[in-house]
Design a protein that fits this description.
This protein has twelve helices and eleven strands. One of its GO terms (cellular component) is mitochondrion.
């Protein structure tokens, strides 16, 4: 059962936010979930597609939603439905099940009900023409199903090996002794993660102040690779996106293991940029856009794992 506490709003992109909120009724023992896409302040028009009107959970049945845009080519579907099939949820678009790029059915475990709702929310908030960047959760789930379902596949092993290559060049392992503002940020955002990783995985992580680089021991590399190799498909897909976005293996481990949240992960990934902008200022439409992009990507990672312990 989903925790009845309200879930925080999650920013998927700069112009829209999808707020997933749960309300619990003790008298009826029913769970109502809804989400609303909200336009940015530049365009105050409010879209009134609430999930309380479109996705109604009652006794594990979810009713369909109706919109007015006719699907055509890559246009958004007019009907979005979330269906429970054999202990899984399937997203239905105009009564047709959503599929991954490789043609596999896109299904979500019954224990991950909130994720299924968020996926349906992504599709319900689409405008006339689909935009890939506005479907971060759909792309992650598709990646997990198409690439990481088979634990023995060469593609999965190659992906893990590529991710491991980030470790020797991990941002957290290259620290500076000046300026003071950078040192303070390193201590605040990096050192706690380093201590956690060393204790949690029982490894020694080498840190350097030199530009010559540092190579982690074979034992450390093997243990951290094994930890990732044991990830379930959804978690591995989330971890992959976190690594590629943050450029840090260790920050990503902290995020998927819930030691830090998406906001903290973004701050840790931008320590050096933050130090520079404090001294020289922000370049508009560059630093700010990049920061929001990273928050969006890492936010989708956090959403992927929202039901992990359900």
């Amino acid at each position: 059962m989903i925790n009845p506490k309200n879930l925080a709003a999650v920013n998927f992109r700069s112009s829209y936010s999808v707020a997933a909120v749960t309300r619990w009724s003790q008298s009826s023992s029913r769970l109502f979930s809804f989400a609303s896409p909200i336009r940015s302040s530049k365009n105050p028009t409010l879209s009134a597609r609430f999930f309380c009107q479109s996705l109604f959970l009652r006794n594990n049945n979810i009713s369909n939603t109706n919109t007015t845009v006719q699907p055509q080519n890559d246009q958004r579907p007019k009907d979005t439905e979330n269906e429970k099939v054999k202990s899984t949820y399937s997203i239905l678009l105009d009564k047709r099940p959503l599929k991954t790029p490789k043609g596999s059915p896109l299904t979500i475990k019954h224990s991950q009900r909130t994720l299924a709702l968020l996926l349906a929310g992504e599709w319900e908030s689409q405008e006339t023409v689909l935009k890939h960047h506005s479907l971060p959760l759909t792309s992650l789930v598709s990646r997990a199903i198409d690439t990481f379902e088979d634990r023995n596949s060469s593609e999965r092993q190659q992906a893990i090996t590529r991710l491991l290559s980030y470790l020797d060049n991990d941002t957290l392992c290259y620290q500076q002794s000046y300026p003071e503002s950078l040192v303070e940020l390193q201590k605040r955002h990096w050192d706690p993660l380093l201590r956690w990783a060393q204790k949690f995985y029982e490894v020694e992580i080498k840190v350097t102040n030199s530009i010559m680089g540092v190579k982690q021991s074979g034992s450390t590399m093997e243990k951290l690779k094994k930890a990732v190799d044991e990830f379930e498909p959804l978690k591995l897909a989330a971890f992959e996106r976190a690594v590629i976005t943050s450029k840090s293996y260790l920050i990503s481990l902290g995020l998927v293991e819930r030691q830090i949240n998406a906001k903290q992960a973004t701050e840790a990934a931008h320590v050096e940029v933050e130090s520079q902008t404090r001294q020289w200022g922000i370049v508009e439409d560059a630093h700010d856009v990049e920061n929001e992009h990273v928050r969006c990507q890492l936010g989708s990672v956090a959403c992927m794992l929202i039901d992990r312990n359900s």
